[in-house]
């Protein structure tokens, strides 16, 4: 008697089929032409612009994300990346000539960028669009096929993303698969040629383990506790504005959001006062009624964040409403590293303010913890800025600002240590999704006998040749 397949087997079968289809598509060599890639990127741009309002509505439905933020941090951000890649791609795809060595004379050496093959892109919920589309742009630009798995925690947005992708591309070329943990597990069981994962550090470990099974290269864009340092000479009014903007954007649910502040103890009270004024300027006296302030993504995160408030001293905000999953922009103090709020990435609108006395203390404290994804320093002293930049380990960051390093597509974006590995954006994305093939083209008009046996007394000559750089 024939047995019917379980839903689990069916899903696994569908995923296998899709990967197989993409393998066949890639093998046709269609993606190797730069014209083909440009055409696909233009289709994506066109689809993005056509779906803009739908995406705004979906993100509002998922976590009340304001349209301004949905444009600036999602649709507009992706559009900017697309336009940059379309402008530069013809240049990037060319083999890059590198300097020659004497030992190889006569020769010319090149780096050829070739696509890996099929890429798997797994996204988180907090910037549900840009964190799957920006890697996809890199994958397409470099000539790969790709399967995109958006987050299940933003169902409305993920549905629009999947529809947009699946209506724009041949599924054998680029396809979106919706689903949660189980779907991701099915995908991870398959053999891909590249995996690009954005999400939490614990899931990053799971992804890397699965990738190791097939020796698939991975990029991990993870999280962590990103500090903000404010020295006694900082412009406090400006610092408060830039910290509050970076922290309360997306209601604090940003991977590079300032997680906590370390402020010189002499200026702590003034900074907190400036933060209070700034929050009122940004969101009014009752931020719950502001149209410019998002909500917490789900009950689990709402409960986790609310529980942090139990044993800290609230200086600004602190109000919560579980029916709306609203947590006010909040500043807390009297916090130690032993408090739960300091034990993991906060990922919400709660800002602990801790103090320091000397910059050496700051360097030692930050370096004693996991390497953060982002690091921000507010200080007027260039000498101090350079010392801190050299000695503190982190993925990327800003002096006298927050988040803006992520906005410049000419800067590679990524973490280090437990905040991730590999970086992307702009040309870095193209390079990331390309295998860099080294090729030496030897001349045939001369064949120096130096390297061939018998070696006789050629040792001093080869020594000299190696010194020529
Ligand atoms: P998450 O790790 O829970 O989920 C990310 C993706 O992994 C989702 O698509 C989910 O379906 C999948 N997933 C979840 N559990 C899985 C499992 N057990 N096995 C296989 N797949 C699984 O992350 P999240 O909650 O969506 O996002 C928040 C985290 O992402 C934060 O830590 C944040 O700092 C980080 N993040 C990092 C960046 C960055 O660029 N470095 C950007 C945004 C978010």
UniProtKB/TrEMBL annotation:
Pfam families listed in its UniProt record: Aldedh (PF00171)
Keywords: Oxidoreductase
InterPro entries: Ald_DH/histidinol_DH, Ald_DH_C, Ald_DH_CS_CYS, Ald_DH_CS_GLU, Ald_DH_N, Aldehyde_DH_dom, Aldehyde_DH_NAD(P)
Domain Aldehyde dehydrogenase: 14-439
Top-rank lineage group of the source organism: Bacteria
Gene3D superfamilies named in the record: Aldehyde Dehydrogenase, Chain A, domain 1 (3.40.605.10), Aldehyde Dehydrogenase, Chain A, domain 2 (3.40.309.10)
Active site per database record: 221
UniProt family annotation: Belongs to the aldehyde dehydrogenase family.
Name of this chain's protein: Aldehyde dehydrogenase
Organism of derivation: Pontibacter ruber
UniProt lineage: Bacteria, Pseudomonadati, Bacteroidota, Cytophagia, Cytophagales
């Amino acid at each position: 008697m024939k047995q019917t397949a379980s839903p689990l087997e069916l899903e696994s079968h569908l995923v296998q089929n899709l990967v197989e289809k993409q393998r066949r598509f890639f093998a046709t060599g269609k993606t190797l032409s730069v014209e083909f890639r440009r055409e696909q990127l233009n289709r994506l741009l066109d689809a993005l612009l056509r779906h803009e309002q739908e995406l705004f509505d979906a993100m509002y439905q998922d976590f009340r994300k304001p349209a301004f933020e949905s444009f600036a941090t999602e649709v507009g951000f992706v559009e900017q990346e697309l336009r940059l890649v379309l402008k530069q791609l013809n240049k990037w795809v060319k083999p890059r000539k590198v300097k020659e060595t004497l030992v190889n004379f006569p020769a010319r050496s090149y780096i050829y960028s070739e696509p890996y093959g099929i890429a798997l892109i797994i996204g988180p919920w907090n910037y549900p669009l840009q964190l799957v589309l920006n890697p996809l742009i890199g994958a397409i630009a470099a000539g790969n096929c790709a399967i995109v798995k958006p987050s299940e925690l933003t169902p409305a947005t993920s549905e629009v993303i999947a529809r947009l992708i699946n209506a724009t591309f041949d599924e054998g070329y680029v396809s979106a698969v919706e689903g949660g943990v189980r779907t991701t597990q099915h995908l991870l069981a398959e053999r891909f040629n590249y995996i690009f994962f954005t999400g939490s550090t614990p899931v990053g470990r799971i992804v890397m383990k699965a990738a190791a099974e097939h020796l698939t290269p991975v990029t991990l864009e993870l999280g962590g506790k990103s500090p903000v340092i404010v020295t006694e000479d900082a412009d406090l009014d400006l610092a408060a504005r830039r910290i509050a903007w970076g922290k309360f954007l997306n209601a604090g649910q940003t991977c590079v959001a300032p997680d906590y502040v370390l402020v010189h103890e002499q200026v702590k009270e003034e900074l907190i006062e400036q933060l209070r004024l700034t929050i009122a300027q940004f969101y009014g006296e009752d931020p719950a009624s502001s149209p410019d302030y998002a909500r917490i993504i789900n009950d689990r995160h709402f409960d986790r964040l609310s529980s942090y408030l139990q044993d800290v001293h609230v200086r600004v905000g602190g109000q919560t409403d579980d029916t709306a999953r609203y947590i006010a922009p909040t500043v807390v103090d009297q916090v130690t590293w032993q408090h739960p709020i300091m034990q993991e990435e906060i990922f919400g609108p709660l800002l602990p303010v801790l103090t320091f006395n000397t910059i050496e203390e700051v360097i030692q404290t930050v370096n004693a913890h996991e390497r953060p994804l982002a690091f921000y320093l507010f200080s007027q002293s260039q000498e101090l800025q350079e010392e801190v930049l050299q000695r503190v380990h982190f993925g990327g960051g800003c002096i006298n600002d927050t988040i803006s390093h992520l906005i410049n597509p000419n800067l590679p974006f990524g973490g280090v240590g437990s905040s991730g590995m590999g970086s992307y954006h702009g040309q870095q994305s193209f390079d990331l999704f390309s295998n860099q093939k080294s090729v030496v083209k030897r001349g045939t008009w001369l064949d120096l006998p130096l390297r061939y046996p018998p070696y006789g007394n050629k040792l001093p000559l080869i020594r000299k040749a190696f010194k020529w750089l």
